[in-house]
Design brief:
It is a single chain. With about 260 residues, the chain is an alpha+beta fold. The chain folds into two domains: about 1-130, Dna Ligase, domain 1; about 135-255, Glutamine Phosphoribosylpyrophosphate, subunit 1, domain 1. It has helices at about 20-25, 30-40, 75-90, 95-100, 100-105, 155-165, 175-200, 205-215, 220-225; strands at about 10-15, 50-55, 65-75, 115-120, 135, 145-155, 230-240, 245-250. Strand 5 (about 135) and strand 6 (about 145-155) form a beta hairpin. Helix 6 runs parallel beside helix 7 (about 175-200) and helix 7 (about 175-200) packs across helix 9 (about 220-225). It is globular and about 55 Å long. It starts with 8 loop residues before the first strand and ends in a 7-residue tail after the last strand. The mean pLDDT is about 95.
């Protein structure tokens, strides 16, 4: 039996008010980003190999990026990823950086939802492509998915078979990749359920998109996916439409 110990770390921040509120109250619209840094730094012992973060803008218009990610390797990875984010801020003037509304619309990583991961690998492959968060992109915002996790799945082959029998063609036998594709598939189905319901109501075009984003239920995605998992895990996720979740294994093995 594997010894219980601290391994990877995860952090999530969900702002409940617009960026302008945090600018007015705390003097910066980057309140959420700063809190994520503190949460990750407090778990620095878990990030001896790599770290990554993701951010989501809730009010982006078509043609504008809304999901961002930064990853780095090494025991200074936390500092590296936040330095990379702040380097992007250097492309804007001081007046632009001081404007919360401008930041929310134009500045990368100026979002309302943040997620961070600290990697302390115990199994699996190493390299930047294996550093969380993982992304699954789509032209429909609600179908976009970003996940990170602290886990050891004991039934990776079973999860692979569960996906393959549904008709998917997984390209690798990697636990995080398989969870991303499994959750992504169920997210697609949930989005399509909402699409059909919107059409039945006589909606079309952008009205359908708005209906999907208001009615999509990520709990349905998890109910269809998580029963297949076996092991110790904490899985965090963000969808492109702003649904967030954190799910722990039933035995509470992973903190």
């Amino acid at each position: 039996m594997e010894q219980l110990k601290h391994e990877c770390g995860v952090a999530m921040v969900r702002l409940l008010k617009p960026l302008s509120h945090y600018k007015a109250r705390y003097g910066t619209w980057a309140y959420g980003l700063n809190k994520l840094y503190l949460m990750m730094e407090k778990q620095h012992n878990r990030g001896q190999e790599a770290a990554g973060l993701a951010a989501l803008k809730l009010n982006a218009n078509p043609g504008e990026e809304f999901m961002f990610r930064e990853r780095a390797m090494g025991n200074t990875a936390i500092q590296q990823i936040f330095a990379a984010v702040h380097e992007k801020f250097a492309n804007f003037s001081s007046s632009e950086l001081a404007d919360a509304d401008f930041a929310g619309k134009n500045i990368p990583f100026a979002g309302e939802i943040y997620m961070g991961h600290l990697r302390y690998a115990t199994t699996g492959k190493r390299g930047l492509s294996y550093v969380h968060p993982f992304l699954r992109r789509d032209n429909w915002r609600a179908k976009n998915l970003c996940i990170c996790a602290n886990f050891n799945m004991t039934n990776v082959q079973e999860i692979f078979d569960h996906i393959a029998v549904k008709g998917q063609h997984p390209r690798m036998l990697s636990d995080t990749y398989l969870l991303l594709e499994q959750l992504g598939h169920r997210l697609d189905r949930e989005s399509e359920r909402c699409f059909a319901a919107a059409e039945a109501l006589g909606l079309s075009d952008r009205d359908i998109t708005e209906y999907i984003e208001r009615h999509i239920d990520v709990a349905n995605v998890l109910r269809e996916s998580a029963p297949v998992w076996d092991g110790g895990y904490v899985v965090c996720g963000i969808t492109g439409s702003g649904e967030t979740f954190v799910l722990r294994d039933p035995w509470g093995i992973r903190p």
